[in-house]
User: Fold these one by one.
Assistant:
Number 1:
Amino acid sequence: MLDSDDIGRRRREPAKRAARDEIDMNDRGPVRMKPPKFDYHAPDTVREAVAVLADVGDSAVVLSGGQSLIPMLNLRLARPTDVVDLGAIDGLANLEPVDGGLEIGAMVTHRQMETNDLVASITPLAQHAAGFIGHRAIRNRGTIGGSIAHADPAAEWPAVLLALDGTITLASAETTRTVPGDQFFEALFTTAKRPDELITSVYLSGRFQNSWGFSEFQRRTGDFATVAVAVGCVIATGAVVEARIALAGVAERPVRCPDAEQALIGTRPGRAVDAAIAARDSFEPVGDCHGSTEFRKRLVFAETKRAVTQALGPDLESRANA
Amino acid sequence: MRDITVTINGRPMSATVDPRLLLSDFIRQDAGLTGTHVGCEHGYCGSCTVHVDGASTRSCLTLAVQVAGRKVDTVESLAPDDETLHPIQQAFEDCHGLQCGFCTPGLLMSVAELANTNLVCDRAKIREHLAGNICRCTGYHQIIDAVEQALAEIREVQIDG
Ligand SMILES: Cc1cc2nc3c(=O)[nH]c(=O)nc-3n(C[C@H](O)[C@H](O)[C@H](O)COP(=O)(O)OP(=O)(O)OC[C@H]3O[C@@H](n4cnc5c(N)ncnc54)[C@H](O)[C@@H]3O)c2cc1C
Ligand code: FES
Ligand code: FES
């Protein structure tokens, strides 16, 4: 946002303001620019893109769907010197089945994830969660790579990635590396991605395709999650042998809840409630105008119970609710 | 500066633009099409909604350079001529789906996308689809009425045609 100093200076020195922002004129008068000035790059290949990042350093940003970056530019919360637009690079928006899972190009949009048949069959949790992101116009442009890089703690993709044991593939001028989701999200809007790296794809495991759940509370349709819970389980001969539970909106980064996961293993009845209690007791979400800490803890309980019940299916549901 | 060519409402247009120029400002200032309204300029109100290659897009969250070589359709593309309204526009008029009209161009373009992808939907689905378009005047009920009427009319035309 503008600080008052900035506004005062602009009022007093109109000439300087014009010089700084270089107000362009066309035949209808001044053309006002909302984003700050930057150098624009539209490389055709990943190799060219990472070369620019290596060259410019950490004052460059990558532009994918722009649905988080452009608001920040418009509000001048971000003032990059260089913008590297991935829009012209071929092959970054592919969806490919690999080893029973799904390799998803960084530029695949939320809308593609919502409507693609491969996503629906291999990673139905991801297909279902996609519909909770923003509005159609946001989903038409926003990308999975952009959301993972942005790492909003209330966003859907990071939680889904953790629940589906996902990995992130990063490219830089020097090398390509793959980082497990569990090691990627470090803090608020902070990840293991270095400024000279770009996300080229993410991988989601297909082994949870028969036992998954997702539940989210949002204040209004399209809002970020107040609390969202994503669950992936592997069930063998009636027993849960692997469980992953990831939550959005409860901490400064998307997180798994080991205690809740442990509560699901085996065949004991009543585990949706046990997992929900464990999740509620694991976090102290920060309260704000959208909900107090106490309210959010209740949401963690309710959404975890719903997501787990969905994952375990109707057979185990009655026992889970016992 | 960058040279771009964009097909706006079916007509190719070339321009030299600053890369930081928003598509919304390009449409209003360079193309002179002021039907697209600009409200919040950070993605929340939906009044700036246009179609890029047929998909609804916030023009305030898109740079003009990002649509180089693409097809952009604005609210001006809806009516077939100066005398006739598009069925969606007609329904908004019939049902009083607008008062001040600030939100209307964005709503019309969101509804146009719905009509292209999902002609059969109940009021709940319509509400969900339009949740990203904020209206300060109508209280939404007449907007939903209008969309129901418009979708019904378009379905009928398609069956007859
Ligand atoms: C009104 C509104 C509602 C929204 N609601 C939701 C919601 O409910 N849930 C939700 O999850 N999101 C929501 N979003 C955000 C949206 O999902 C964004 O699309 C997403 O957060 C970022 O993806 P993007 O492709 O638009 O990235 P951009 O905006 O282009 O980039 C975001 C950040 O990631 C970096 N980046 C982008 N791509 C890469 C890459 N490949 N490699 C490295 N760095 C990269 C950029 O440099 C930038 O810092 C909403 C946005 C709006 C405007
Ligand atoms: S002006 Fe674009 S969403 Fe409000
Ligand atoms: S009619 Fe006034 S904002 Fe919708």
Note: Chain A has three domains: 39-84, 95-204, 212-320.
Number 2:
Amino acid sequence: MTTRTPLLKAEHVGIQFGGLKALSDVNMELNKGELVGLIGPNGAGKTTFFNLLTGVYEPTEGSIVLDNEKLNGLPPYKITRKGISRTFQNIRLFGELSVLDNVKVAYHSLARHSILSSIFRLPSHFSGEKEIEEKAVEFLKIFKLEHVMDEKAKNLPYGQQRRLEIARALAAHPKLLLLDEPAAGMNPQETKELMSLIAFIREKFDLTILLIEHDMSLVMGICERIYVLDHGQLIAHGTPEEVRNNPKVIEAYLGEEVS
Amino acid sequence: MATLKRTIGFWISIVLALILFVVVQVLISGEILNSFYVNTLFFMVINIILAVSLHLIIGITGQFSIGHAGFFAVGAYASAIMTMKLQMPFALALLVGGVAAAVAGLLIGIPSLRLKGDYLAIATLGFGEIVRISLLNIEYVGGASGMTVTHLTTWPWVFACLLITIIVIANFTNSTHGRACISIREDEIAADSMGINTTYYKVVAFVIGSFFAGIAGGLYAHHFYIIQPTNFGFLKSFDILIFVVLGGLGSMSGAVIAAILLTIVSTFLQDYPETRMIIYSIILILVMLYRPKGLLGTKEVTSFFKLRRAVQGGIGNDNKNTVA
Ligand SMILES: Nc1ncnc2c1ncn2[C@@H]1O[C@H](COP(=O)(O)OP(=O)(O)O)[C@@H](O)[C@H]1O
Ligand SMILES: [Mg+2]
């Protein structure tokens, strides 16, 4: 079904924090339109891998290429503008800003009106702000958040905060969306809704998604391919079926349960 | 609808401002206000400009600058040099004071704001002291005995500068650019990940704030006949910081009200500087106990009248340092 056009290519990526090698020799290829899972026990380096892809940290080895453009060394905001956006394991909303303003921030890079035009309230300020507002409201409707758009983000219930964070990441119009344990802290009902939301946005926005999940069973259902990290190294890669039966994976997860 | 209300609110503010201007002008021209009150009033407005300019840096953008008096000093001396040494007109002198302070802000801001963390606090603290000590040792501007300056600051100048400061900073704040700054305050890593050029906006906010501190310096220099390095020490920076903290980080009207109240308090305690510090400390402790988010918290005065949707907020914290 999917035509295999590569979108992201990570080759021999690694990073060292002082003496600790948090990731080494990670190779990953994502094709356009894929929904891929990244799993592994706690502390395996999954979040660190996202931090490398988004430029929070610069890899100490290897290269990351998106759509034939090398991303290594670019600041995070440039990487976002090139088409990667993310959510965070510990939700990072702009708590004191309204729900609407949270999404508006994501539209900032589209704004064409200058600082001076805002200070002097020139016509371009009003048209620019109006455009951002309309787009943001439209977006909140898709995520069924328009009825809370004037609430402060920090006052939303947990499930809605997660949804808002995904909405905000999508409003930055990424080609590749990175979701870091989006189901963490959710009850089974919320998790189910979240998974169908993920399937829905992937269709609607023609996205490639890389999904970190700690709970193996969760990703099995919706991902086409799965990468498994343990102790900073990829230990397996394949279809859910292949990964589930891989002895290394079973061992990694068993090891976690014991400790 | 919201736009209409906002427009009405805007015009009401303008009319109130004009009334205030005319009333005070009449009181001054009719010599109903004696010079003590006029002095206090001018000093109050200068403090408001300082408070609002620092509010943009700390309250909106979340960058702790604790040497604001340094930029105030740069503006004061630069404008005084313009009028006293180079015989330039006052308007130009004010502008040059602002620009000089803004350039200083740029030079301090670019290296220290590129880094995440509290480098700005350290850099600005150092900057304030360096400015003060340099001025003490520059004979051209009078060294420790200071520089005498002609009295040129009049009510229309003070009022116009106040109005421009408030309009510029409010307009900046209520735009996508201000939202970018607030997002940095709330969570810099998330702001980065939303495509905000965080370094750029931190520097912009810092430079705008420094500019208006410089303008305040020009007004100050041409009002008090003499400027001396001791007027611009750390205690002055501390005073300005208190306005912003007391007013509620993130609230411009809070900073204005705090500046007004504390100018009155400190005027009455002018002859007892130690008592003043004690009373300041007590006020701060009481505020921290009873209103830990400052007088207005993160609200604006207008939000009490529901004229506009409040967009600002306080300092966010939680998981700022590790990225997970
Ligand atoms: N900034 C950092 N400095 C030092 N060590 C780090 C840093 N970020 C992550 N690590 C370490 O890297 C390892 C992987 O962490 P992480 O990527 O958060 O794991 P996961 O998301 O898979 O649970 C952990 O041992 C963690 O302590
Ligand atoms: Mg993690």
Note: Chain B has 13 helices and two strands.
